[in-house]
Amino acid sequence: MTPAPSTVLPPDAGMDAVTLRVGDLDLMTDYYRNALALEPLEEASRGREVHRVLGRGTTPMVKFVSTPDLPVGSRRSAGLFHTAFLFETPESLAATVAHAAANTRSRFLAAQDHLVSQAFYFSDPEGNGIELYVDRDRAQWGHSPAGEIEMDSIGFDPNAFLREHLDSGTLTSASELPGTVGHVHLQVGDLDAAREFYVGALGFEPTNSTMPGAVFASAGGYHHHVAMNTWNSLGAGPRAASLGLGDLAITVPAREDLDALVERLTARSLPFADEERSVRLADPWGTQVTVGVGGSTLEETLER
Prior knowledge:
The protein has about 300 residues and is of the alpha+beta class. It contains 7 helices and 18 strands.
């Protein structure tokens, strides 16, 4: 008897490099290199577009696609709220935050304790939101009586955090310290439609729905790999072509996980492209989503 396909993503699913369409490739590269200590790893030309991947070590963390003819998106449109870069230790986070804070092109927004993590928020030169964060140990995460992960947004003193965790060694070697995309926070037009797509179709599991206007979801009990909010974008329709988020990438361990995803998408009559090592589709607002096997190589990241 053939087992029923899984309705959720595997517990070790995660996030991959985010793709941003940018107007000024050199400006954005310079910012992410100097403010976030991400090194250019590879690039390729595709017609009039230049695709450039940045990351740490051999790990791609962001890809820029140079599309200078596109307009800046409206703040009220669906799309990216922020990309959240996760670091392994408070010291590594502090080193990156210090670089970002010292960069004259940074716009510092907030430092917040989310109970499950500590986070710093910035905006890049083209208005894309950035979160830099470190997780607390999972044993310290609280759960509500309903089983949801408890999260909050409590301001804290960023300078006190830096005084406690910053040292000259991590500051000078920040680009050599590991980092990854921990989660992506989206602006959407409707939470029910977002939940049906990201939870029902893709297979993330909801983790917190108590914050007004937002839903958080993940695989494997993480606090969240994706978040969706309508704080600026309630009622937004499909996205017009613009700068900003170009692709949201999710990783799964095996082809069997893609097969289960294909069954879920087929059952919902959602269009998709099956490319053997990845499945590509669009969310209800036209944001491209790529679910791929394993972490993307530089070549696969460039091809997305």
